[in-house]
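In response to the reviewer comment on reproducibility (Comment 2.3), we provide here a single inverse folding case reported in full, input and output, so that an independent group could reproduce the run without further information from us. The structure tokens appear first.
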């Protein structure tokens, strides 16, 4: 059991953002995804040059051209780094990316012991997206605004890319996922969390899917401030060929076959 972290003062400033992007054979989408994150990092730098940004691409068991695409960014932009793993697990990849970014591993404490986060952890933000998604230019700016207003975690919204997607399937998805503030959904493709809260809540579990939901449940159970917003919407692939057995693409495929409740 990980004990609660000491509460941070509202408006605690952020001086470092670590972006983690897991990728498993995503060479059809990865270049667009990395370019979008690069643009978001540039936009933040123009406004807040004092905030350091690093991007870790976790290449998980890739056998396609994903490593070559990533290498172009790591060679040209010192903010990018690649990490090669062989987990075949979104949760394990995200956790490894956080460790590689210097956030470290959650530490277990004896029950009843108060855990004080490292001094840097309250000022470090972990921003997560996916290799088949394109973040908006203001993605990091908006997360920083929420973080410095007191949020411990931010749940952004996503919109399936209509390109190549069945219009009826898209209509069903949009009907069940209205774009609104305070929405109930959790997407690993658009999720930010303060490092101190991440560590106190146990970090990403090493699950093939639903690692994002599990972490958010842990954050909420510890009374961290979790904010849901549609103000930094991410465009994500509308494919139905799933990488994870219970992930977003699997949900879309099932939605195409059946009328489902709005629970994803």
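Designed residues, in position order:
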């Amino acid at each position: 059991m990980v004990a609660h972290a000491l509460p941070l003062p509202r408006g605690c400033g952020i001086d470092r953002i670590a972006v983690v992007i897991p990728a498993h054979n995503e060479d059809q989408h990865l270049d667009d995804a990395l370019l979008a994150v690069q643009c978001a990092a540039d936009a933040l730098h123009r406004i807040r040059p004092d905030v350091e940004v690093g991007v870790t691409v976790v290449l998980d068991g890739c056998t396609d051209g994903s490593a070559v695409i990533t290498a172009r960014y790591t060679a040209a932009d010192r903010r990018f780094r690649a990490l090669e793993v062989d987990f075949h697990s979104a949760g394990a990849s995200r956790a490894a990316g956080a460790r590689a970014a210097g956030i470290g591993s959650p530490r277990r404490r004896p029950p009843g012991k108060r855990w004080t986060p490292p001094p840097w952890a309250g000022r470090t933000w972990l921003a997560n997206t996916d290799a088949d998604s394109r973040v908006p230019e203001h993605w990091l700016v908006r997360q920083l605004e929420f973080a410095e207003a007191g949020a411990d975690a931010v749940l952004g919204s996503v919109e399936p890319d209509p390109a190549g997607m069945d219009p009826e399937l898209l209509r069903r998805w949009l009907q069940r996922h209205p774009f609104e503030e305070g929405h109930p959904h959790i997407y690993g493709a658009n999720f930010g969390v303060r490092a101190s809260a991440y560590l106190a809540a146990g970090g990403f579990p090493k699950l093939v899917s639903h690692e994002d939901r599990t972490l958010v449940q842990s954050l909420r159970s510890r009374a961290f401030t979790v904010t849901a917003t549609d103000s930094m919407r991410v465009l994500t692939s509308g494919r139905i060929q799933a990488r994870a057995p219970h992930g977003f693409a699997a949900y879309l495929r099932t939605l195409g076959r059946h009328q489902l409740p709005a629970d994803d």
